[in-house]
Amino acid sequence: MSFSIAELFTQHSQEKFELHENYLNNQMVRVLQTIGYDRNYTRATGQYLYDQDNIKYLDCLSGFGVFAVGRNHPTVVSALQETLSLELPNLVQMDVSLLSGLLAKKILATCPDNLTKMFFCNSGTESVEAAIKFARYTTKREKIVFCEHGYHGLTMGALSLVGDNIFREGFGPLLPECSSVPFNDLAALEQALSNKEVAAFIVEPIQGKGVNIPDDNYLPEVERLCKKYGTLFVADEVQTGIGRTGKFWAIEHWGVQPDMICMAKALSGGFVPVGAVAMTDRIMETVFNRMDRAVVHGSTFSKNNMAMAAGLATLQVMEDEKLVANSAQVGADIISSINAMSTKYEFLKEARGKGLMVAIEFQAPTSLKLKAAWAALEAANKGLFCQMITIPLFKEHHLLTQVAGHGMNVVKLLPPLNLTQKDRDWVVDSFEHAIADTHKVPGSIWSLGKNLASHALKSKKGT
Questions:
Q1: What ranges make up the beta strands (E) of 93-189?
Q2: Residues 126 and 243 in one domain
Q3: Which of 51, 240, 397, 427 has the least CB density, counted as fewest CB within 10 Å?
Q4: Total number of domains constituting the chain
Q5: In sequence order, what are the beta bridge partners of 402?
Q6: What is the rounded CA–CA span in Å between residue 258 and residue 115?
Q7: Which pLDDT score is estimated for 208?
Q8: Which of 1, 267, 227 is nearest to 124 (CA)?
Q9: pLDDT by residue (tens digit) across 232-256?
Q10: Distance (Å, rounded) from C-alpha 460 to C-alpha 463?
């Protein structure tokens, strides 16, 4: 009997949620059903998803930034099919692979000149784990400093550097000697570094949770302070890198040179996970300083041929389709168009971001009727208002978005970088309709708000 994935999909297409209820995270199923996101998607191409009724959705989430070149890009698919057909030696281990060398060379050509070596792993959180170890070994220090509200992954080392307690609670004790400072606060950073005991300061150039953008002088001063106190400067570009912000690396907006760049997500093309750390010669030669230390840190699957082929093909697509420039242009258009609505809508505070890493933030209104409605939602669960934006965006306008973080009144867009002008209009028009509806009190959207508030209050009571 032959084995067929296509047949499995056909036979079990209606069992997806039942299987997850029975064997996986059933709370995720309940979340999707509560907010009406429980769709059966049957295919995906580029920036679009299609459900079983052939309804087309514009994917402004892109797998948390994984599908920068769009879903199922034919160039990446072809590269993976070719790699499978070649019968290449793979993961020999007592060997070095050609494709990993080629991918390392290609990535480093995009990096600041001081970064000349690569380490490959399987994910963003693994890249952060590597950066922690490399920083400690290189500096012979233990302390790591990170930013409040930062996000760096969920394995134990990376989790120790996450600034949101909802991810940390109940998983401690975490790594000792890790402490946080406020993002964009140079005085606090200098105080933390001044004892010359900190191995590394790790920071997202733009914070993913909330899309928080630093002042223009922040990252240049971070670089200066790290050099002054002998601390390694680590840029976590897992989400912001590979063209997301309208530059290949977000650090290019500020012209800085970190000692390490952590990367993953978009590098995979959405197929085979790829993570990596770009670093200086000094770091590589300190950690791997003798032949007997050649294997002191690594990962069994990290340089597998499929992952490396996916990375090479993805970078080629980025170059051929000029996706970095497209990200900059379309993102700027979306931000300016939504900001132009702020004078019409009390709830809309601002749109901000760089490239196609975009936040739309909402605020308490001033008129009495709207203020009362806002207060009721905030009392039930802080940040609940955003669900009154994202749910209609999805159900009525077929736009897949996300709330930018726990307890935030911020909706986040992280779409593929190949959005067209028509897609840009789809996004802007959908937001205008969704925001306008929230200003109609009473109205159908506020019936949704009451239901959401009711669910939130029941959840708080544990019922």
A1: 117-121, 143-147, 178-181
A2: yes
A3: 51
A4: 2
A5: 412
A6: 8
A7: 96
A8: 267
A9: 999 999 999 999 999 999 999 999 9
A10: 8
Is the CB of residue 123 less than 8 Å from the CB of residue 276? Answer: no
Indicate whether 212 and 288 sit together in one domain. yes
Does residue 311 contact residue 269 with C-beta atoms inside 8 Å? yes
Edge to edge, the sheet with strand 48-51 lists 41-45, 48-51, 56-59, 399-400
Write the CB contacts of 98 (distance below 8 Å, at least 6 apart in sequence).
Answer: none
CATH code for the domain in which residue 348 is found: 3.90.1150.10
What per-residue confidence (pLDDT) applies to 95?
87
Cα within 13 Å of Cα(5), Cβ side: 0
d(CA 315, CA 267): 7
**Considering the entire predicted model, what is its pTM?**
0.94
Beta-bridge partners for 362: 348
Structural domain contains residue 59: no
**Do 256 and 267 contact (CB within 8 A), yes or no?**
no
Pair 99, 215 in one domain = yes
| Cα(374)–Cα(354) distance, integer angstroms | 29
284 close to 393: Cβ distance less than 8 angstroms: no
Q: Mapping DSSP to helix (H, G, I), strand (E, B) and coil, where does residue 53 land? A: coil
**pLDDT (0 to 100) of residue 444:** 66
User: Would you list the DSSP string of 312-336?
Assistant: HHHHHHHHHTTHHHHHHHHHHHHHH
| Residue-level pLDDT at 380 | 82
Residue 445 falls inside a structural domain: yes
Cβ atoms 206, 192 nearer than 8 A: no
Question: Token pair of 311, please?
Answer: 């990375």
Same-domain pairing of 369 and 316: no
Residues 138 and 188 in one domain: yes
Give pLDDT tens digits for 59-98. Answer: 999 999 999 999 999 999 999 999 999 999 988 988 899 9
Contact present, 455 and 378 (Cβ < 8 Å)? no
Provide the domain limits for residue 457.
Answer: 322-461
Q: At what angle do helices 444-461 and 421-438 cross, to 10 degrees?
A: 80
Residue 449: predicted pLDDT: 65
**Dihedral-angle region of residue 241 (phi above 0 means left; psi in -120 to 50 means alpha; beta otherwise):** beta
Indicate if 299 and 328 belong to the same structural domain.
Answer: no
Four-CA torsion 259, 209, 415, 243, nearest 10 degrees: -10
56-59 and 357-362 strand pairing: unpaired
Measure the CA–CA gap between 106 and 172, rounded to whole angstroms: 39
- Report pLDDT for 214: 98
Contact between 305 and 81 under an 8 Å Cβ cutoff? The reply is: no
CA 59 to chain centroid: 14
Q: Which residues of the chain have pLDDT under 50?
A: 463
Q: Are residues 224 and 367 in the same domain?
A: no
